[in-house]
Write a structure and sequence with these properties.
Layout lengths: L53 E5 L6 H14 L3 E8 L8 H27 L7 E6 L2 H11 L3 E8 L8 H7 L10 E5 L4 H7 L1
Helix pairs in contact: 1-5
Protein name: Nucleotide-binding universal stress protein, UspA family
Pfam families: Usp
Organism: Roseospirillum parvum
Length: 203
């Protein structure tokens, strides 16, 4: 039973005049127009619709990249963000053969663009917006780091770690090794062995 506080200095209420508990007091609730705005939810970005979080995934042709894609898609959908896909066309080894080298480079770029388009179609089934597709030429690590520095919209880098004999992969080694302090964004590393159900449970 709740406690009831009484003031011993207050006498009994007269029954001659109806008792109005609100007499002489300001309204308990101010008019709607004067109510203060509710406190913002710290877990929701108020400007998220205008500046959605951008999850960057590197498409490198590895088997485990699917885990990174699914993780990024789920996080983007659940936080009203977007996904960006980066692929880097590295220069051919035999650049001194100009014609052959250029032909190889053109072919590699075409393959990279087709790979991006294929992954973009899959991502569109998960999130409403089509992902941003980015193709750059050069060293993969250098181009990745340059892109993150240039594009301030990128909020998170999502990589998948391989489990084979070659280790987690060169990019994972780079961002967890001597180059770790060069990135301005957090990195999410998704084990490539996770199933879709496990990834869904984490996101």
């Amino acid at each position: 039973m709740p406690s009831i506080l009484t003031d011993p200095g207050v006498g009994p209420v007269s029954h001659g005049t109806p008792f109005d508990p609100g007499a002489g007091l300001p309204p308990a609730t101010p008019p709607p127009d004067s109510l203060p705005d509710p406190a913002p939810d710290p877990d929701v970005d108020a400007d998220n619709d205008n500046n959605p979080r951008l999850f960057l995934v590197v498409i490198d042709g590895s088997e485990e990249v699917g885990a990174a894609l699914r993780f990024a898609c789920r996080r983007a959908r659940n936080t009203h963000g977007r996904v960006a896909l980066l692929t880097v066309v590295e220069p051919p080894e035999f650049q001194h053969w100009m014609f052959v080298g250029r032909a190889m480079e053109d072919e590699a770029r075409q393959i990279a663009e087709e790979r991006l388009q294929a992954h973009a179609a899959l991502i569109h089934t998960c999130v409403s917006d089509m992902p941003e597709l980015i193709v750059r030429e050069g060293d993969t690590r250098e181009e990745l780091f340059s892109l993150i520095e240039e594009d301030q919209r990128i909020s998170v880098l999502v990589l998948a770690a391989g489990s084979g004999k070659d280790g987690p992969g060169p990019l994972v080694k780079a961002v967890t090794g001597k180059h770790a302090g060069q990135l301005r964004v957090p990195v999410t590393i998704v084990p490539g062995t996770l199933t879709d159900e496990q990834i869904d449970g984490l996101t």
